[in-house]
Known about the structure:
The chain is mainly β. It has helices spanning about 315-325, 460-465, and strands spanning about 20-25, 30-35, 45-50, 60-65, 70-75, 80-85, 90-100, 110-115, 125-130, 130-135, 135-140, 155-160, 170-180, 190-195, 200, 215, 235-240, 245, 265-270, 275-280, 285, 295-305, 310-315, 335-340, 345-350, 350-355, 365-370, 375-380, 385, 400, 410-415, 420-425.
Amino acid sequence: MPLILGTNSIKDTGYDVDNSLRFNDGSSDYLNRTTTSPNSDRKYTFSCWVKRSSLGKQFIIADYGSSSNFSEFGFNSADKLFAYQQDGGSTAFEVVTNRVFRDLSAWYHILYVFDSAQATDTNRIKFFVNGVEETSMSGTNYPNLNLDTRLNGNGRVYNIGQSGNNGNYFDGYLTEIVGLDNQALDPTSFGEFDSDSNIFKPIDVSGLTFGNNGYYLDFENSGSLGADVSGNGNNFTVNNLTSIDQTTDTCTNNFATLNGAFHKPNHTLANGNLDFANSGATWYYCPATIGASSGKWYCEIKVGTNTENEFGVCDLEYAVAQAVNGFTFLGSGNGSVGYQINNGQIAVESSSTSAFGNSLSVGDILQIALDMDNEYVYFGKNGTWQNSGDPTSGSSGTGGQALPHSGATYTFGVSAKANGQGKCNFGNPFETISSGNSDGNGYGNFEYAVPSSYYSLCTKNLAEYG
Length: 466
């Protein structure tokens, strides 16, 4: 179960990426433009940072001319990175990694380099992930010498986030998208390894030579999400994406989401794994992707239905065990605490319950303040802390619930059944926030004031406090 902890976070990333674009496959989100005459259709580089929200076949970029003429790059049905082109109904090339990409908590840097003028066929297509070349391949049908790539041809309908034939939509977050015409560059043009952690991190790409068809999408203009900032003016048309899809969850500050690795039948995650629903009669439980063993953390969850929902926190050891042994609800097993939405009771380990606060109705917001330094969790409703709680009370834990396990690593979580629904905000909401409150470091966007010394669950905060 992929998770992020303080030990694999970078506080000082040097060059910061401010925004990404969140793609939701359920609403058919994508970008597209028609290409112009290239400097070369035999040499092309594509770079982006990717955070997946679900698994399965998804295209990052594609050109679709017809069912016999198209080119694709993305993840196949086995979650392997692949590039494929068909010309006149025949396969022109197909290159597939052996490695699978199933971490839904992490940002990947992905680099696709096409140079069909290379004498050695294995040099004509290269993939790099997080600065390292992928050399173990399960599919090795490389392009013929001097083959033209459709992705940089003239007059192509170039798509980001779907096949071009209304299918295999990308689901997740993309940022720092760069296309280079007549360039075959290596990862050092796009990133560098952090000297302390050895994590690959982005660098400023604005000075690259982009070429006629080249572009650079940084998603910093919420009113023009398809704007090319390379200077070429190769802007993309925005399809089914709005300003709320501009996010601050990026490769330099990764925010928690719900963990899609816990996906089960009748359990649906959407909108960047911040929107959850369960249509079945069986409970499902889903933790967040980031956990902490120290520090103070805050989130908000908006109630979609006030039937059988429990929101709260859990020991990650418990979370992993549930992934193996079956899914249940918060408060029913070791290390978890759940606030019962329909009656305001608290459930703590083995389903023992007690009166705590008020029930919540549809549209209400449950606030959760997790104090890992003093090992208490506090719950609030629409700006009022329940049980006369004071999240800033420290070791006295005034109005808080003591965590059942000491010295553990905890994360936020949700559990639901019988049409339970909700919307999570770990600091990077997918709905408009009417007020807007950030934490003491200036991160996050919340409906209610973040308690003093509490922070949104993101990697920059985690590196400092977690």
